[in-house]
Amino acid sequence: KLTTSNYLRHVESMAKVPSGAGSIPHLNAVILGESLASEENDLIFPNVEFSGQALVSSPQKYLEMYKRSIEDPAGFWSDIASEFYWKEKWSKEVYYQNLDVREGPVKIEWFKGGVTNICYNCLDRNVEAGLGEKIALYWEGNEPEFDGKLTYNNLLHKVCQLANYLKDVGVKKGDAVVVYLPMLMELPMTMLACARIGAVHSVVFAGFSAESLAQRIVDCKPKVVITCNAVKRGPKVINLKEIVDAALVDSAKEGISVDTCLTYENPTAMKRENTTWKEGRDIWWQDVVPRYPTNCDVEWADAEDPLFLLYTSGSTGKPKGVLHTTGGYMVYTATTFKYAFDYKPSDVYWCTADCGWITGHSYVSYGPLLNGATVIIFEGAPNYPDSGRCWDIVDKYKVSIFYTAPTLVRSLMRDGDGYVSKYSRKSLRVLGSVGEPINPSAWRWFFNVVGDSRCPISDTWWQTETGGFMISPLPGAWPQKPGSATFPFFGVQPVIVDEKGQEIEGECSGYLCVKSSWPGAFRTLYGDHERYETTYFKPFPGYYFSGDGCSRDKDGYHWLTGRVDDVINVSGHRIGTAEVESALVSHPHCAEAAVVGVEHEVKGQGIYAFVTLVEGVDYSEELRRNLILTVRKQIGAFAAPDNIHWAPGLPKTRSGKIMRRILRKIASRQLDELGDTSTLADPSVVDQLIALAGV
Ligand code: 6R9
């Protein structure tokens, strides 16, 4: 075991304060180094061997790089960007930004005028560099006996065939393509094929319902929808094609008809014959794509050309189409992947996220492939056939970097250490966590049991909007504190502000904002730049507002405390309370609904719904089930409420605003902390709700 003094000897160089570092307020405490030496901080020191080989081997090294990235962002990022292939170098300044709504429209540009292609940089560039025979993707099926693999050469050829097909059916630069696929190798392949021809992919997580899918199709009006007939997750077969069929009927009603639905036959889940089909519109992937040539010229893109749209939840009912562009996103995802996971060419990398979420975009597909990494795509469920599946996969492929979500860590922790210790896991080097704050006990279990107290944990804080990691440990650089995302990534200036938007320094807590832009930042909300400004840049003028609360301790470590808006984080999935409420009230028996998040042992947060029924309807078990079913149908199974609390009335102010603060207390049974209820229009509803708690 490393002691503090050992560690300090190891990072001797750290004692020297870099000149000028004092101008970075949130790092002051750490630079002084004094509290690092204290053990009651619960510091976990990096393993000396690990640090010795790490890309960033000490706080000192981090500080040097960080300082340059803040003082000279143009120089810092253009040096990194130059490692990629640009057909033409950016013509103007490296970046342009206005984040201050008071000074005009918010605008962010990086490498403008530069001409590149992210698919070319993921595939052709790596093949040319001699990685053609390296495995790009390993696929592990839901059933352990099904697997597959593709080298960089194979992947490039398959991407080209699909790109040629898409061009042939009329997809052009700037057209949207909606992708509703499970975790097959065809999913990253599809994203890359779109990027190759300049089409804008909009991947919809294949757990969303037909109605959610239709809403996204109507918003972005795709030329083509790409899906597969079915998928098995655990023991269950999910008929995806039926969901797509229903979504296409719905979107046609809204005037958006899609001419082509390319359907991959997933033979391990469902046979062709059993698939619902619309002649003329639907076409089997396997029947057409392999007939196309295996080479396809790339469509060169301006750095600021759109790359993809990804819908995410906000505090109103309508999902937001987060738009990312090409150049900055490419440079940022590649760089964050490399440093936050201390990536080495010999690594085998597995991220358990689905490509339907941002984590799958940036850290299953683009970030790792830009680095020429070997990536695992897992189709199944992490506890099928049993809770040892993850470690079975780790041993089978010799996974060295394992990146997952706290909710999975907690659920595996509950199943017991036996499932973990049964497997060797000796290939593991770095662990990662994302999606929600990781509680210290889960952190410790992950560190001690899964990583045998050897592997640093990168607890990466970031968002769909940020494109890549914002606050994260760099393995081997810093001592870690279980549950803290530690320090900002290069180029990122997190600030904590109070209600008035004043920056607070030193030890504090408040709203987490970011000062100045970074290459991976989203550029707009699709079709609604005004909402972009209102949601993210107006609350605290001059800053990007994350929607998260955060505190900073005396050593400058950051601790994320969760959302401060009406967004719930269930198993790392963002769900707007308004979306669930609008689904509930669409049920004819539901008059009103108010949804809050409550602490949940495994999922982080659970969904707790207060429901007022229409006059004359009585509550029943059947109705409860139907209400939950309505939400599953409208949003997806992952948004199903955990609790329905019958509410004869809801606590409202005299102006009719629902007081969620009180509902949160009732939901978490903190009944002696209800606070002042005298401003309610009818304080007696609170007593009624308490009386019905647990009904
Ligand atoms: C990447 C992703 C973003 C929200 C974000 C925050 C929460 C994500 C976190 C974390 C604490 C972490 N979040 N990572 N909170 N520590 N390491 O999850 O994107 O789906 O857009 O969610 O997730 O609340 O605001 P997204």
TrEMBL record:
GO terms of molecular function: acetate-CoA ligase activity; AMP binding; ATP binding
Keywords in alphabetical order: ATP-binding, Ligase, Nucleotide-binding
InterPro entries: Ac_CoA_lig, ACAS_N, AMP-bd_C, AMP-bd_C_sf, AMP-binding_CS, AMP-dep_synth/lig_dom, ANL_N_sf
Residue ranges of domain Acetyl-coenzyme A synthetase N-terminal in the record: 62-122
GO biological process, one term: acetyl-CoA biosynthetic process from acetate
The AMP-binding enzyme C-terminal domain, residue ranges: 579-657
Domain of life, per lineage: Eukaryota
Domain AMP-dependent synthetase/ligase positions: 132-517
Entry EC no(s): 6.2.1.1
NCBIfam families (UniProt xref): Ac_CoA_lig_AcsA, PRK00174.1
PANTHER family recorded: ACETYL-COENZYME A SYNTHETASE (PTHR24095), ACETYL-COENZYME A SYNTHETASE 1 (PTHR24095:SF14)
Family classification: Belongs to the ATP-dependent AMP-binding enzyme family.
Protein name: acetate--CoA ligase
Organism in which the protein naturally occurs: Trapa incisa
